[in-house]
Amino acid sequence: MLTTPFGFSSTTDDVLEGVSLAGRRAVVTGATSGLGTETARALAAAGAEVVLAARRPRAAAEAAAEITRTTGNAAVSAAPLDLADLASVREFTAGFTGPLHILVNNAGIMALPELRRTPEGREAQFGTNFVGHFALTTGLYPALAAAGGARIVSVSSLAHLMSPVVFDDVDFRFRPYDPWAAYAQSKTADVLLAVGADRRWAGEGIRANALNPGAIATNLQQHTGGLRTPEPLRKTVPQGAATSVLLAASPLLDGVGGRYFEDCGESPVVEQAGPIGSGGVAPYALDATNADRLWELAGELIAA
């Protein structure tokens, strides 16, 4: 199990201290607020060229301008990307040229109170959090391969412990819809996205890992009435984004892939969900057979 000098309270600046990302390009999804904006800022502060990919272009442009102002890095830009709409994802990937060294699949929606579907008919949380990121990741494969060493970061959640991927009914066409079951399934799928990518592309220098950022008060809780995690278990935004940035850019992760992290360290595999704050990763989320099955299913979904 991989350990690092960092932990629960470490910030993005802590994990990138002394790290130069000059000459590297990064894409961060959902970078208009919260963890996405902080992840993009930290990568830009270390010298990377950063694209903020988001469904609200004006908000993304404002965030990019603020990052440039605070970091002095002018190579920060915004691009439209709606992960719930595969046409938007295809437009983004088709227009992306040149190598890509870092892809942070950060965007997400959580606990939608009522069943919603994407234009392609997917349950909205599965469609946005996983299928959209799967289409983005596979669509950017040529750019990742061209980098000569790239990293994919898949932002998951402690909630993945609440449900595996229910392969026979990912879109809640037979099961009664449950906001948290849908979110949990999508977050397990996000871990399997990283496992599958690493299995397929590690030989080409593309490594992928997943993470739980922890409990952070952001726009993600807009449907839940706010963050309800006990105060001692909460993180600031720079603390919450630290594990994403560690996986994206720290030399401590060179050659590491197909794993799940939290609090800036690799998580233990657990046999059952524990109390809030106990963490860990479910074995079904790291299972290679599950990853292969999900990748096959997702390939069919984005081709339909």
How is this fold's topology laid out?
Blueprint: H1 12-15, E1 25-29, H2 34-45, E2 49-54, H3 57-71, E3 76-80, H4 86-94, E4 102-105, H5 124-139, H6 141-146, E5 150-155, H7 179-201, E6 206-212, E7 215-216, E8 234-235, H8 237-240, H9 242-249, E9 260-262, E10 265-266, H10 283-286, H11 288-303
Parallel strand pairs: 1-2, 1-4, 2-3, 4-5, 5-6, 6-9, 7-8
Antiparallel strand pairs: 9-10
Précis, in short:
The chain is an alpha/beta fold. It has 11 helices and 10 strands.
Describe the structure.
This protein has 304 residues and is of the alpha/beta class. The chain has helices at residues 12-15, 34-45, 57-71, 86-94, 124-139, 141-146, 179-201, 237-240, 242-249, 283-286, 288-303, and strands spanning 25-29, 49-54, 76-80, 102-105, 150-155, 206-212, 215-216, 234-235, 260-262, 265-266. The strands form 2 sheets. It has an 8-stranded mixed β-sheet with strand order 3-2-1-4-5-6-9-10, with helices on both faces. α4 packs parallel to α5 (124-139), α5 packs parallel to α7 and α7 (179-201) packs across α11. The N and C termini lie far apart (39 Å).
The SS-based structural class is: alpha/beta
- Portion of residues within helices: 25-40%
Percent strand: 5-15%
Q: What is the residue-mean pLDDT, rounded to a whole number?
A: 94
Tally of alpha and pi helices? 11
List the secondary-structure elements in sequence, H or E.
HEHEHEHEHHEHEEEHHEEHH
Tell me the Rg in angstroms: 17 Å
Spans with pLDDT under 50 lasting ≥5 residues? none
The largest sheet, given as strand count, sense and whether it forms a barrel, is: 8 strands, mixed
Principal-axes geometry comes out as globular
How many strands appear in the DSSP assignment?
10
User: Span between N and C termini?
Assistant: 39 Å
Task: Give the spatial strand order of the biggest sheet.
Answer: 3-2-1-4-5-6-9-10
